Amino acid sequence: MKNILKYTFVILAVGFVSCEPEFDTPVTDEGFYSSGTADLSKYVSLGNSLTAGYADGALYITGQENSYPNIMAEQFAFAGGGEFTQPLMNDNIGGLLLNGAQITENRFVLAVGPNGNPGPIRLVGTPTTDITNRLSGPFNNMGVPGAKSFHLVAPGYGNVAGVLAGAANPYFARFASSETATVIGDAAAQSPTFFSLWIGNNDILSYATSGGLGVDQAGNFDPSTYGGNDITDPNVFASVYSQQVEALTASGAKGVLVNIPEVTSIPYFTTVPTKAIPLDAATAGALNAQFAAYNTQVLPGLVGIGFITPEEAALRMINFSAGQNFPIMTDDDLTDLTAILQGPPFSLPASLATLLGQLRQVKSDDLIVLPASSVLGTTPDPSNPQGVIGVSIPLSDQFVLAVSEQARVTTASAAYNATIQALAGAKGLAFVDAKSALARVANGGIVYDGGVLTSQFVTGGAFSLDGVHPTPRGYAYTANLIIKAINDTYNATIPMVHIGNYATITLANN
After folding, report:
1. Could you tell me which CATH class the domain 43-270+404-501 is placed in?
2. pLDDT tens, residue by residue, 468-482
């Protein structure tokens, strides 16, 4: 068996493009820009990691400085905007400490590994941001990495004592006004004249990035019972989201609401090809011989006794051919056959029954997640060179987002987006269709003066090295989308930014 997997990131071009501003009128001309019917003097932004400026798998100073709210605030300054403060990290390493012990990982940088292939690695170094050192606020950027919609209204979400137990958020613990504070309460207490709200991505994202290992909680209205990777019930989302909008608009503030993109359009789900296993004819033939009895005897036998349907049997068929192949995987959505395969008439050994219990081959509509690139085609046991992940060892379900799991994500996000758009209309707020905007980036890209912004991993310019969060250039594109919506809704003339002046990914040699 040879050439099981050769999967590397080909870096075509990585650089920072600097171009002239795209505006004919200098932004220093007094009186040219206006906030229209909006009052930008006290801008507060709420959301999760996207709002905070999270990138490259961590929160760090440079990312925060290039967060879309900070970029927007700089442009707001030309139209009456006031000071904009953020709970900055202590360094550009990115990790967090709790009483000196590191509790989150450092950021990714792009480097060339020992095998000569470029790829993301964690930056080496000791972070200096300890969450027990609470910052004195308030802060205009209330973005909290990891927050789901219902977390913004949860008392104690910033209590340091609850962090290790998962009852509180370490990022909010740094700047919460008290141990019992809520994110929305701290935001509303600032009496903002203008706000942005972008929340709900994490209500589906963790389910998707875990390969659907969580639970779709549709019908469960008690988020205190949810697991970390679960999908939030749409009614729960609608309830807490309405509370947030009501709190922010209670004093007459205007603002902008941003909907939820299709998470499966991001590089985390589109970088690893589904046909990721290259095989020669001899190896493919040997593998098919090993699975012949499973395909022709075991599966028909299970159909015959009524344990699975013919459709499920077809889904479980394993077949390899010369060339690129779909890897095999375990699918937790399938009926677990382990117990029945150990009994008559099959009487398979326990190890084999376990292997075949929920086995199937990846399909073209499945999505293999980015971390799978580090395990596909590897041999975890050096003494057994035939034990190859994706070929003779199934790829774990956590590395694949199946079609059925994608459907759950899509259904939930569609319901969230209906709530967001309806509230924007009812309250007369600006609305940004981030879902359509990301689709344009993913399908052909966005042309700007200096290049094209795409969702291609590493080289596309839009997404950082975690495959989920934008680069500074991607955040600048986001800022422009929101500024345009504000201008259109409130008859404002806030200048947009030239996204080519913002960086992409970070290089390092260590």
Report:
1. alpha beta
2. 999 999 999 999 999
